[in-house]
C-alpha cells in the first residue's frame, strides 16, 4: 500500500505542532516558571491553557490573569512563600502554586 | 413608623480588607472588629442606620470575598447574603459594593459579578484619603456612567462622603416604598465555577471600564522609594525583627504590668482591711465579704494590666499590617506541619481567646485543615491563662536576678509557657494531619495589605472592650464561683467555737472543709505532678474558667490567715506556704513550672468546647479535644516534675 508523502509530512507537522503547543511553556526560551523566576524582575504572566486546580482559579480571580505584568518581589525565609506584585496589589503564595504559572521575560 | 413592615436591608459586600467593617461601624455606630488583615469578619453582623429622611434601614456587614464562587464558610455566608437567602425573603436588599479605591482593578472583578445579578447595586469607593495622598484622581462620574450604577467616593476615617452615601441609600429606600413588589431576580450564572476564559474576559472588561477613570495628578514619575518590606521581609533581618517584636512584647508584658499590678493589689488589700474593720472578728458575713469575695475576685482583677498590654500589642500588630508579614515569614513552618497558611491568624488570635479564634478558622477552605486548626487552637496560651502565669511567676521567680543583667527570668518563663503551647499546637497538628485528618498540604494565598498607622482611639477602644469583658466575667462567673468556694472552704465548721484560733487550727479547719475533702480525694491523681490538695481544689474549680484558680487560692489563703496578723497579699501567702510534712515551701520553682505547664496544655474551658461543637457540628471533636489536651497536660507535667525531682530540684 502506498501512502502519499504529502500525508506523512502533514501528519508529522501536526504532531510537531501539537507537541509544541503542549510544551509551549517549557520550550519558549524566554518563559520560566514563576517559582523559578529571579527576584526583583518584572515579566508578563502566562497561565496554563486550562487551569483546573482551585488555587490557580482563585489566583486568577485575584488578578493573576494571562498577560498581566507581574513582579517577583522576594521569597520568604527558609524556602518560604513568594511575594509578588500584580494587578496593583501584593500577594503571597506558596511555591507549589507558583509552579503552575509562567512568566515571560521582557527585555 | 410602621412596625409590621420589615426594614429594608443594605448589604455591605466587597473584597477582604476593603474597609467594609469600618464603614459599617461608621454607619451604625457599633464597634465591630476592624483590622488591617484580609479575612477578619467571618460572620454577618447587623446594625441599624437612621437615614436623613427618618427612614430606618438594617445594615449588614458581610465577610469579604474575592468572588461569588465561594470556597470557604465565610465566603458562603456572603454569597448567600447576596442571593437573598439570609433572613426572610420578603425583605428587599440593596447591595453596597465596598470597593477599595487604591485597588480598583482587582476590586471591580467582584463588582462585575455583582452586576450580573441585576439587583439594586451601589458602589462605595473607600480609602479615598489614601488615594488622594497618592496623588490620584478618580473620575467617579465617568465610572458611574460606564457601570450604570451610582458611585460614591468616601473615606471611613475622615468621614468625607458618608453623607452622599446616605443620600443614595435614602433614594433607594424611597423607591422601595413606592414599589409594591420588591424586584427579585435569581441569577445563578456567576455562581458556577468560573472558567479561565471567563475570568480573563471580565478583566478585559474592567480595563475598558477603567480607561480614563484614573488620573495621576503628580506629574513626576514615582522614584523607587525606601520600602519597609525590604527590611521587615528580608531573608535575614525579617526573622530577627519578628523575634525582637515578640521579645519586646513579653518583656513589657512582664515589666510594664508589674507596677500597676502591685498598685491594684495594695489598693485591694487596703480596701479589704477597711471593710473587715466594720465586722466583728468571727462574723460569717464579714468573712464572706473580705476573705471570700474581695480576696477571690480581687485576686483576678489584679491582672487587668497584663490583659491590657497583651491586647495593646495584638492591636498594633493587627492594625499596622505587620500581621500579614508575620504570616509570610512563618509560613514555611506552617506548610511543614501541613497547616494552611490561613491558620496563622486563628492561631494568633488564640493568644487572646480561643472562642473567636475557633470562629476565625472559617476562612480555611478545606474542611479537614480547618478541623486540625480548631483542635489545636486552644493550646495557644489564651489571656485567661495570664493571671495564673502572672501569679506563679511573681510569687516564685520574681526575686531571681535578671539573666545577663537585662533579661528578666520571669519574662523568660512566661515566654517559655507560650512557647510550649505553640510547640504542642504544631506537634499535635502534624500528628493529626498525618494520621487522623489526612490530606494534601494546603495552600497559602494571602493579600499583603499596605502598612497603615494604627489609630490610637480605636486601639484604646479595643483594649477597653477587652477589660470590660474581663471585668464582666469577674463580676459573674468568678464572683459566683468565689461564693461557692467560700462556702465549701468554710463548712462544715469546727465544733470548738473559740473566738481566736491559732494558725494550725485554721489550717485544720480548711483541710476538713468540703472543698478540702474534695481536694484530698483527687490529690492522688495529681500528686505525681507535684500538686497538693490545695492545688487540686484550684484545678477542679478552674473548669468553670481558668482564672478561677487564682480566686480559689485567694479565698483559701484569705481564710487561712489568723485574725490577729496583718493580711498578706496572695503572692506573699503563696511564698509563705509551707508543706507541713517536709517543712519546705509548697511552691518550689519545679512545682510552679509543672503547674504552669499543666495550665498551658489542659483543656479547662467550657466555652471553647462549646465553640468547637458549634463549628464542627458534632460532639466527637470537642470530646476528642478535651481528652487529648488533658492527657497531654498530665503527661507533660508528670515528665517535668519527675525528671526535675530526680535531678534534685
Ligand atoms: N485610610 C483609610 N483606611 C481605611 C478606610 N477604611 C478602612 N480602612 C482600613 O482598612 C483596614 C481594613 O478595614 P476593615 O473594615 O477591617 O476591612 P473589611 O473589609 O471589613 O475586611 P474583612 O473583614 O477582612 O473582609 C483597616 O486597617 C482600616 O483601618 C478608609 O476609608 N481610609
Ligand atoms: Mg470586616
What features would you highlight for this structure?
heterodimer; A: 107 residues; alpha+beta; SH3 type barrels; six-stranded antiparallel beta sheet; 6 strands; B: 649 residues; alpha/beta; Rossmann fold; six-stranded mixed beta sheet; two-stranded antiparallel ribbon; 27 helices; 9 strands; 57% helix; elongated; binds guanosine-5'-triphosphate; binds magnesium ion
Spatial extent as radius of gyration of chain B: 29 Å
Average pLDDT figure of chain B? 85
Gyration radius of chain A, to the nearest Å? 18 Å
CATH architecture annotation name of the domain at 9-216 in chain B: 3-Layer(aba) Sandwich
Helical content class of chain A: 25-40%
Query: What bound compounds does this protein have?
Result: guanosine-5'-triphosphate, magnesium ion
Q: What about the largest sheet of chain B? A: 6 strands, mixed
Side-by-side strand order of the widest sheet of chain A: 1-6-2-3-4-5
Question: What report would you give on this structure?
Answer:
The complex is a heterodimer of chains A (107) and B (649). Chain A has 107 residues and is of the alpha+beta class. Chain A has one domain (31-105): Ferrous iron transport protein A (FeoA) (SH3 type barrels), CATH 2.30.30.90. Chain A is built from three helices and six strands; from the N terminus they run H-E-E-H-E-E-E-H-E. Chain A has helices spanning 5-27, 54-61, 95-98; strands at residues 31-33, 42-47, 69-75, 82-86, 89-93, 101-105. With 649 residues, chain B is α/β, with parallel strands linked by helices. In chain B, 57% of the residues lie in helices and 7% in strands. In chain B, helix 3 (104-116) links the parallel strand 4 and strand 5 (121-126). In chain B, helix 3 packs across helix 7, helix 17 runs antiparallel to helix 25 and helix 18 (409-436) packs parallel to helix 25. The longest helix of chain B is centred in the C-terminal third of the chain and has 35 residues, at 456-490. The radius of gyration of chain B is 29 Å and the shape is elongated. The N and C termini of chain B lie far apart (74 Å). Classes of the chains: A alpha+beta (107), B alpha/beta (649). The interface between A and B is large, with 37 and 38 residues. The complex binds guanosine-5'-triphosphate and magnesium ion (MG). The site of guanosine-5'-triphosphate (GTP) has 26 residues of chain B, from helix 1 and helix 4. Guanosine-5'-triphosphate binds next to helix 1 and helix 4 of chain B.
Amino acid at each position: 500500500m502506498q501512502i502519499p508523502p504529502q500525508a506523512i509530512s502533514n501528519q508529522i507537522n501536526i504532531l510537531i505542532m501539537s507537541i509544541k503547543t503542549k510544551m509551549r511553556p517549557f520550550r519558549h526560551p524566554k518563559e520560566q516558571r514563576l517559582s523559578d523566576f529571579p527576584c526583583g524582575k518584572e515579566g508578563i504572566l502566562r497561565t496554563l491553557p486550562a487551569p483546573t486546580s482551585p488555587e490557580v482559579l482563585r489566583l486568577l480571580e485575584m488578578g493573576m490573569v494571562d498577560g498581566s505584568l507581574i513582579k517577583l518581589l522576594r521569597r520568604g525565609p527558609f524556602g518560604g512563600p513568594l511575594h509578588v506584585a500584580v494587578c496593583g496589589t501584593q500577594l503571597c503564595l506558596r511555591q507549589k502554586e507558583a509552579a503552575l504559572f509562567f512568566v515571560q521575560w521582557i527585555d | 413608623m410602621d412596625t409590621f413592615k420589615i426594614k429594608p436591608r443594605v448589604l455591605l459586600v466587597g473584597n477582604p480588607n476593603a474597609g467594609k467593617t469600618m464603614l459599617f461601624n461608621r454607619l451604625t455606630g457599633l464597634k465591630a472588629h476592624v483590622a488591617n488583615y484580609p479575612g477578619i469578619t467571618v460572620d454577618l453582623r447587623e446594625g441599624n442606620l437612621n437615614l436623613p429622611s427618618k427612614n430606618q434601614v438594617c445594615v449588614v456587614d458581610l465577610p469579604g470575598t474575592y468572588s461569588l464562587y465561594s470556597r470557604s464558610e465565610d465566603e458562603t455566608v456572603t454569597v448567600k447574603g447576596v442571593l437573598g437567602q439570609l433572613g426572610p425573603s420578603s425583605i428587599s436588599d440593596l447591595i453596597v459594593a465596598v470597593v477599595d479605591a487604591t485597588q480598583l482593578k482587582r476590586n471591580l472583578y467582584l463588582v462585575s459579578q455583582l452586576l450580573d445579578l441585576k439587583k439594586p447595586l451601589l458602589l462605595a469607593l473607600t480609602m479615598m484619603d489614601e488615594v488622594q495622598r497618592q496623588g490620584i484622581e478618580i473620575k467617579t462620574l465617568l465610572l458611574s456612567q460606564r457601570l450604570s450604577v451610582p458611585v460614591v467616593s468616601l473615606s471611613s476615617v475622615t468621614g468625607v462622603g458618608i453623607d452622599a452615601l446616605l443620600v443614595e441609600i435614602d433614594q433607594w429606600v424611597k423607591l422601595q416604598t413606592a414599589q409594591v413588589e420588591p424586584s427579585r431576580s435569581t441569577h445563578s450564572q456567576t455562581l458556577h465555577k468560573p472558567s479561565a476564559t471567563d475570568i480573563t474576559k471580565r478583566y478585559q472588561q474592567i480595563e475598558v471600564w477603567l480607561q480614563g477613570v484614573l488620573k495621576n495628578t503628580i506629574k513626576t514619575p514615582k522614584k523607587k522609594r525606601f520600602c519597609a518590606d525590604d527590611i521587615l521581609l528580608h531573608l535575614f533581618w525579617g526573622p530577627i525583627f519578628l523575634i525582637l517584636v515578640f521579645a519586646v512584647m513579653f518583656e513589657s508584658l512582664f515589666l510594664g504590668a508589674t507596677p500597676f499590678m502591685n498598685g491594684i493589689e495594695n489598693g485591694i488589700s487596703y480596701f479589704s482591711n477597711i471593710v473587715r474593720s466594720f465586722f466583728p472578728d468571727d462574723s460569717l458575713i464579714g468573712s464572706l465579704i473580705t476573705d471570700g469575695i474581695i480576696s477571690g475576685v480581687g485576686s483576678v482583677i489584679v491582672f487587668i494590666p497584663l490583659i491590657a498590654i497583651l491586647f495593646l500589642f495584638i492591636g498594633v500588630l493587627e492594625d499596622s499590617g505587620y500581621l500579614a508579614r508575620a504570616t509570610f515569614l512563618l509560613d514555611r513552618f506552617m506548610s511543614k506541619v501541613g497547616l494552611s497558611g490561613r491558620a496563622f491568624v486563628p492561631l494568633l488570635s488564640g493568644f487572646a481567646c480561643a472562642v473567636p479564634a475557633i470562629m476565625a478558622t472559617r476562612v480555611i477552605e478545606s474542611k479537614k485543615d480547618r478541623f486540625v486548626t480548631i483542635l489545636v487552637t486552644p493550646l495557644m496560651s489564651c489571656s485567661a491563662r495570664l493571671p495564673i502565669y502572672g501569679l506563679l511567676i511573681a510569687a516564685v521567680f520574681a526575686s531571681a536576678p535578671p539573666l545577663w543583667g537585662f533579661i528578666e527570668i520571669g519574662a523568660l518563663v512566661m515566654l517559655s509557657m507560650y512557647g510550649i503551647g505553640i510547640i504542642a499546637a504544631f506537634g499535635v497538628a502534624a500528628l493529626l494531619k498525618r494520621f487522623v485528618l489526612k490530606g494534601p498540604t494546603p495552600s497559602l494565598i494571602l493579600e499583603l495589605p499596605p502598612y497603615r498607622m494604627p489609630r490610637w482611639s480605636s486601639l484604646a477602644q479595643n483594649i477597653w472592650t477587652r477589660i470590660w469583658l474581663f471585668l464582666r466575667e469577674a463580676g459573674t462567673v468568678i464572683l459566683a464561683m468565689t461564693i461557692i468556694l467560700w462556702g465549701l472552704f468554710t463548712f462544715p465548721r469546727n465544733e470548738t467555737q473559740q473566738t481566736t484560733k491559732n494558725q494550725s487550727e485554721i489550717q485544720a479547719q480548711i483541710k476538713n472543709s468540703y472543698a478540702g475533702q474534695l481536694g484530698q480525694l483527687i490529690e492522688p491523681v495529681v500528686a505525681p505532678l507535684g500538686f497538693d490538695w490545695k492545688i487540686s481544689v484550684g484545678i477542679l474549680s478552674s473548669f468553670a474558667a481558668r482564672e478561677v484558680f487564682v480566686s480559689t487560692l485567694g479565698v483559701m489563703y484569705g481564710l487561712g490567715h489568723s485574725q490577729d496578723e496583718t493580711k498578706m497579699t496572695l503572692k506573699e501567702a503563696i511564698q509563705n506556704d509551707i508543706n507541713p510534712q517536709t517543712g519546705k515551701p509548697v511552691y518550689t520553682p519545679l512545682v510552679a513550672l509543672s503547674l504552669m505547664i499543666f495550665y498551658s496544655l489542659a483543656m479547662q474551658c467550657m466555652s471553647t468546647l462549646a465553640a468547637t461543637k458549634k463549628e464542627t457540628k458534632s460532639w466527637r471533636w470537642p470530646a476528642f479535644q478535651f481528652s487529648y489536651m488533658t492527657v497531654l497536660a498530665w503527661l507533660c507535667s508528670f515528665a517535668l516534675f519527675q525528671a526535675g525531682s530526680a535531678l534534685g530540684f
